[in-house]
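Format is chain and fold; as here:
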Amino acid sequence: MTRPATYDIHAHILELDTVAALQDALPEIGFALVPIDDESAVLDVAGVKYRPFPRGGWDVERRLADMARYGFDRQLLAVSPQTVLYDKPAAAALTASKIQNDAIAARCRANPQSFQGLATLPMQAPEIAAAELERAMTEGGLVGAMLGTNIEGRNLDLPELDVLWARAEALGAFLLLHPLQVAGIDRQRSYYLQNFIGNPLDTTIAAACLVFGGVLERFPRLKVCLSHGGGFVPYQQARWIHGWAERAEAKLRLKGEPGPSIDRLLFDTILHDVAPLQFLVDLAGADRVMLGTDYPFDMGQYDLPEVIDALRITARERETILAGAAERLLRPAGGAR
């Protein structure tokens, strides 16, 4: 029997040439990828170090070998979240965005059967971010953007972001929300809780702000995908619906009940077990759930074909989760493929 196609919609990349270009263009910030051994390095951005940064993050041959080993035909490439620079001046963030977006576009052109790409944007400057999204999609052939779940502690319901949402909707951009600078860090410094709890928590806050801020109500064609199985959204969404009916605060910007906005959210599959993924698919439907691994990081999930095989779903639903939903959604209305 022919194996269905597989498409990993959550993967990160930072090639050595890109690091060198960032170093040359923005020496005042400081970018470095310092080897630990043959398999990993320390990623240093403005003195903040992330370790280990796995070899697959910069070595495309290793990436392609890993994709073959794990059974993934295609990846949607996004930047490493450490390099978005929301805390720097907008000009620096735009420069870093353009360098990385052009590098991802070049990689996709070099390996069109294996990769499509997402842009990164200077979210602290929404009008500039909207223009860079359009440039990256129409000139570079990228299919959307990876956005942080907050902008230096500011939520994604900021009115000034409407210019970006409007442009993303018009372009048919796929928007992958990825946690960074997570909330509640003062209580999560031990045990790597900033990742175990902080990442899904910040994704949940971002999704709630898009819902209750009326963003998804005003821009109903936005394609917003939540990382890591949607954080806590699937488990708590009924509480949101109940709360909107009971509390005046929830109606300040969301005019209709939240159910339709929640039903527009998309999800990756990174839940690390069959039972929670089964719950997500049962709740959201296969058309809103897409295979995603978080490659190349150690908190990624690389056994997903086997996990998806174990779900109680139809053959069509399996094919949809493995690649069908991604192939349908990654067709921007206004950008080149």
User: Anything to note?
Assistant: Residues 90-110 form the longest helix (21 residues). The chain has 13 helices and eleven strands.
